[in-house]
Write a structure and sequence with these properties.
The protein is mainly alpha-helical. It is 54% helix and 2% strand.
């Protein structure tokens, strides 16, 4: 009989799969956001130069600062989103370390994306020109940006930010639900029922299936030797043929 120890197969809960899909969606949304930022950077730079044309502040310098903040921030968010995508693959395998790392990186991303949405809702781009005395006000900068950029850029960017925040928060919450905890626990070896007819590797009593027979026992030839029938046994001299059996013939007498 077989009694082996093995790790039972785990079935991934649906909430873990949905959480991974949401992390992949978050990654895709960050890619789209970076593409929009790069495609509109030229027009944004021209609008900043025009806004600071009549002030003592260098418009090119302001545009460079915006490039570092805007494009650099979008690239950092995209890299962190890629990390979350890789962690989603490990989450599907039930690795608890990956789940904990997802919570840490995801929490940082929630603060970044949420902070960006709050900043846009509070007044959009603010380059500090209103503090320069002769520089343009934040309202003037925002107006020039809206005139230079296509009308769909602002609402689409806002929609992408809201969807990214919702997808990320939902993914982190799904990983924290109690239903997902057993999938991320360390699995212990399980007991398998014995298979009928199989030999047990441990010691067995004689006569049980799979028990090796000793060499020389009747009906079991020695290992590596052919099996022959036993030779006939001849009558010894002192043996006398039986005469008291029915039908036997007595020996002749002299």
């Amino acid at each position: 009989m077989v009694d082996s120890q093995s790790t039972p197969a785990r079935q991934r809960p649906s909430i873990v799969s949905i959480s991974s899909y949401l992390l992949f969606l978050f990654l895709a949304l960050q890619v789209i956001t970076l593409i929009i930022t790069l495609s509109t950077f030229g027009k944004t730079r021209d609008a900043l130069r025009a806004a600071y044309a009549d002030s003592a502040t260098d418009g090119d310098q302001v545009a460079d600062v915006f490039a570092v903040i805007g494009i650099g921030g979008s690239i950092v968010l995209l890299l962190l989103a890629v990390v979350l995508g890789v962690l989603a693959l490990f989450n599907n395998q039930g690795r608890n370390g990956a789940r904990i790392t997802t919570w840490i990186v995801g929490g940082i991303m929630v603060c970044c994306v949420g902070g960006g949405l709050l900043s846009n809702a509070a007044g959009g781009l603010n380059t500090g020109g209103g503090n320069a005395g002769d520089g343009p006000s934040p309202e003037e900068i925002q107006r020039r940006l809206e005139e230079a950029l296509p009308s769909w850029v602002t609402p689409v960017s806002l929609l992408l930010g809201v969807l990214s925040l919702i997808a990320l928060i939902a993914a982190l919450v799904l990983l924290a639900l109690p239903k997902a905890n057993p999938f991320f626990r360390k699995q212990t070896a399980g007991w398998e029922p014995p298979t009928p007819g199989a030999s047990y590797p441990g010691p067995q009593a004689p006569g049980q299936p799979g028990y090796p027979q000793a060499s020389g026992e009747p009906g079991y030839p020695s290992s590596g030797e052919p099996s022959y029938p036993p030779p006939p046994v001849a009558n010894r001299p002192d043996d006398t043929p039986p005469t008291d059996r029915p039908g036997s013939t007595p020996p002749p007498t002299n």
